[in-house]
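The pair is set out directly below:
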Amino acid sequence: MQFISLVFIFFFSIVFAVYWGISKKLKAQNLFLLLASYIFYAYWDWRFLLLLILSSGVSYWLGLKISKAEGIKNKKLWLNLGLIFSLGTLFYFKYFNFFIDSFANLFGIKNTLTLSIILPLGISFYTFRIISYLIDIKNNKLKVETDALAFFNYIAFFPSMTSGPIDKGGLLLPQLKKERVFTADAGADAARQILLGAFKKLVVANSITPITQNIFQNYDHLSGSTVAFGAILFLFELYADFSGYSDMAIGFARLLGFKVTKNFAFPLFAQNIAEYWRKWHISLTSWLTEYVFTPLVIQFRDYDKKGLIAAIILNFVLIGAWHGPRFTFVLFGLLHGLYYIPLIIKDKLNKKKKFSGKVPTFQEFGNIVLTMFMVCFALVLFAATDLTHAMGMYGRIFSLSLFTIPQFVKIKILGLIGLLILIDWINKDQEHGLAIQRLNPWIRRIWYISLIVLIMYFGIFGNANYIYEQF
């Protein structure tokens, strides 16, 4: 059930009407919300709904055990059981075949253990929710949740179930335990964000997808400039697809009275790689910063900058591996970790850069271009199906044909990308790309009508799947 499908529109319309119809009864409202989330999830595959419920029940019980345990050792014991259960489940569904195949290939053994395993929808996202909840209880950052209905809703919350954002318990659980109020202003702004998300996905991402697929699948018959152009297009495709999903997820959550984690903060204007990752997939990077990077920095604190470099590289290798069981993802993360080394050496890791005017200076523009070049270079690994595929594309890029005119350059695509950049730039200091309440009402209406017309005229409705659902 995709956000941009008629089925979801029908589903959400019913949920919205019933949900606010019983808004004066919090328990009934939460019960209905949980039922809606389970229907949403079961629509994909009802068998994995049982896994979701089991994971929620086990983590709820372990949270109680951690909170009641006396002494740090006992708390760690229950936490470790939770980590083993959650990470073990994730490992089995997402990485088991990869490790078995890699082990067999390494030692030249015939593999007879490969299983037909389907990756449960959203498992990477709700597993990280569970882990953060258990760790926060153990570290006394969060009080254990005794309201089972609220907790099960936290794990299964359908607007952010399939591809995040990854909300922490401290953000979402309190909202599930107090009365939600619907206001016209908040509803209108949520609708604006949903409209922008639909434009990004249906018009920009879906228009680029056939081109990048053609380039990456037939790279060995194309010029280096065309493959390089494909990597640049893929950045905009991935951004429009994932941030478009996030805009819609946040918007639908707001229509239900919830504020969830912001996932993008206009990363296309980042002036260095550290700023880029502070603005891209924010919920994942902040999660890993808190639960992986910070403990590693503490562990390596005696090694000064070398320890910081090691912590960042390990953190980004994990970011790469989180995306899936492919060596290309690991190398993707490793490369981004290596990008940080000059910033660490020059003590510029945490320096935030603000634009000096309404348009970027030559230096600011150069910083943006360099950062996006680095990102696009690494995205070749992200897009490749395996190492052979990646090396083949890099080989084409670094050939003499790089200095030819690329194929598949369409004015329509460039225009849509330009419009996306313009929308982001105008609103780069706002909460989202269509937060235009400050503008004249007639100008706002022109924006809305223009985006709706573009969706109706240029929208490609055949591809409803989001890229990050596979992770």
